Amino acid sequence: MDAWDPFLDPADDGLPCVKEIVKVEVTDVPVDLPVDPWNDNTFVALAQEAAREAEERYEAALKALEAQQAADLEEKEAKEARRQKLEREARELAKLSPQERREKLLERQAYAEMALEAIAQSPAIAMQRKSKHHRDLEEPEELAFGRAAAEIAAAEMGVKINFKSKDEATRPVALLFPDQNSKSLKMLKGLQELPEARRFRETARELLGFDPLDGPGVLGFYELLRGPEGWLEHTQFCQPVMYVAQVAAVEKLRDKRPGALQRCKAVAGLSLGDYAALTFAGVWDFETGLRATQLRGELMEAAIATIPQAAVAVAGLTEERISQLCEECRESSICEIAQRLFPQGYVCSGSLEAIERLMDRARRSQGCKQVQLLKLAGACHTRLMASAREELFEFLQSFKSHMRPPRIDVYLSCGTKVPAGSSIDSLPELLADQLRSPANWVDSIAQMLQDGCGEFYECGPLNQLKCIMKRIDAKAHKATVSLDVYSEESQMKPSGSLPPRWAEGSAGCLS
Question: Residue ranges of region Disordered (predicted)?
């Protein structure tokens, strides 16, 4: 065979034509070979797959959003329907006479009797519903079935039954009355549906010279700038109006839960709340308590105006540390513990310069959690109230002969217990000394719990005492109810998620 010449043209006839087909053996390509990103077909396929995945994710998110929006709309409509229903029921109840309301209660009692009858007749229904509602039977099975049957029967009649254990149904009830820091411009609005509360308002209008719901009017340019609630920052007006709201709140409890008042064995007040507590305990009548709180507010207002004063709330420090800081900040002024609200929760009052020094040192103290200056607060429960103490004592002493022994136990905020039926000879002195002595609320609650009180109702606006109760005893906090005194609806349910009012810088003096 001739040698191959690379310069020859393949088209030349002299080149032998190759007709034999060469077979090349191709092996299988491994499946796990990496995809070639530079191949056009591969790139297009990957892009299309990514687009499909993105579109699927978008459609899934869109469906989830639509489902959530539909659920939110349904929940909103249900809440609105319930609100409208409660509003209609409240308006209908407000139009009824006391006799008609009693008839309504008798109807509910009949419903309860029918439900109790269902306990014996409908255990099978409860058995059927048990799996559906996943009831956890912590009590005897037969009793749990009976309760479930009664709840089902009552629900079909439009009534909700609140079962209580024998211990819960018989434990002593205590009423709690807050101090001036729980004030609110609308604290009497939700009580006007009650005839007795309206009578209190009319009586207060005659004795005070202004409507407790509307206030004394604009007192000056400064009050005009502060808005419609500015008059409540004056202790002389706020204290008697707060007293009216507290006593009227008891009437709401009497109307909505009369059984609770039948089991009431004790009352306690925080500072100003002592006067409403003594009224409910029968020591004096409503008018006497109103005059006492009016004079108390006027005397304290005058004492506050003598020198610049302030109060600060401190949390997280021990009482020994707080007392040491107050001693260091006194110098030639006054700085003292004014209220012992809960463990490591105090209010300190005194002259403005001493309180400013206390705030600075407390913030730099190890373990301090909160330091809050209370807005427009005077040095209540300190020696700066000595002048007010003397005049208040003379007033209380003047009608001591008309005072009666308390019909239930009274726990004064100074930490003293006045047992039911005991002598009230020392009461004027205790109430007068309260102006210049600390309010030991934590001691009062601890003694009430030790004496067996197991259910508490806060009679007044906001939920100051319920929030403080959470820091004293968690179990007692769950058994505390703050009465709603704002709306016309009956919404007497716990609301312990808010922080205590004393730590929010609320206006008014600590009384």
Answer: 490-511
